[in-house]
Amino acid sequence: MRPVVIDTNCLLQIISRKSPYRPIWDAFLSGRYQLCVSNEILDEYQEVMEQQITPTVAENVVLLILNKKNTLFVDPHFRMGLITADPDDNKFVDCAFAAGADYLVSEDSHFEVLRTTPFPQLNLVTLDEFMRTRLIR
Question: At a CB cut-off of 8 Å and minimum separation 6, what does 20 contact?
Fold first, then answer.
């Protein structure tokens, strides 16, 4: 199963039933890829969803992620510090590196530095690019 890290803003976009990116969430629910998360990522998912949607939705989504067999829990031991424009985004980079993720899905411009970083080589993709992978179709 292919490991994937999804940043918080992308998660918000894929969980809506009306979103054109909903197939990404449905592919996770049906077990077509592994969602890689760390405690820091889960905390951010919950915090942001509580603010932007509702605490109930936030709790339900995080519980669902916690209970899916295709969730990979990662405890990154390295702090790469590759994103200096918004250091808080590094939790996703560190998770992707530690998990050996095939994809890091983000629409955040702070992640663009990864496209020119020689090490570690992380496959940064947008939601549209991820939608075109075989994992989603």
Answer: none
Domains and CATH numbers, the chain: 3-131 (3.40.50.1010)
Q: How far apart are CA 49 and CA 43, in angstroms?
A: 10
Closest among 16, 3, 5, 38 to 105, alpha carbons compared: 5
Residue pair 101/36 in contact (Cβ under 8 Å)? The answer is yes
Q: Is the pLDDT of residue 81 over 80?
A: no
pTM of this structure: 0.95
Q: How large is the average pLDDT for residues 31-54?
A: 98
Exposure string for 85-103, b = 16+ CB within 10 A, e = fewer:
eeeebbbbbbbbbbbebbb
